[in-house]
Write a structure and sequence with these properties.
Distance between the termini: 17 Å
Strand order of the largest sheet: 1-2
Largest sheet: 2 strands, antiparallel
Number of helices: 5
Mean pLDDT: 84
Number of strands: 2
Helix content: 25-40%
Strand content: 5-15%
Structural class: mainly alpha
């Protein structure tokens, strides 16, 4: 008898884009032009020190003007735009940035952590995944009738 994973490719395909969207909304404030953006620890980002004057004026070269009054880690939008779903398989999915890893490190040095080794996702996004996994597992186990399981 072939063993089947309870959290399978179908589950990860079902939630992957929503997880990416929730992460982008939390980290970059995509639905509020950065006004509600929070770091990996669910705190507001600190004020900009050096870049703040030009960012708040909206005069930076290639600057995304809709984010000029926010503390979100968005200046040109390159990092925000590159933060996307990368791949999905039966073991999970990956998303993030390939081209702008140096910006993520630079932001961390400025006190603007968007992820780190021991905490890849904000708590709200992690809770969403757990809630969806619980619903999916209960649904899949409900399909199994008349078998005995040793747990």
């Amino acid at each position: 008898m072939r063993r089947r994973k309870v959290l399978d490719l179908a589950f990860f395909k079902k939630i992957n884009q929503e997880v990416v969207n929730r992460y982008r909304t939390h980290t970059f404030g995509t639905t509020s032009n950065g006004m509600k953006a929070m770091d990996i620890d669910d705190r507001e980002y600190p004020d900009y020190k050096d870049l703040g004057v030009s960012k708040s004026r909206g005069t930076g070269r290639r600057q995304r003007s809709s984010y000029k009054l926010s503390k979100a880690p968005v200046f040109s939008g390159d990092l925000l735009n590159d933060f996307q779903l990368r791949k999905t398989n039966s073991g999970g999915f990956s998303f993030g940035t390939v081209a702008w890893g140096s910006k993520v490190k630079s932001l961390a040095n400025l006190g603007r952590e968007i992820s780190r080794e021991n905490k890849a996702l904000p708590t709200k996004v992690g809770n969403y995944i757990m809630k969806e996994a619980d619903k999916y597992v209960n649904k899949e186990l409900g399909k199994i009738k008349g078998r005995t399981f040793n747990i």
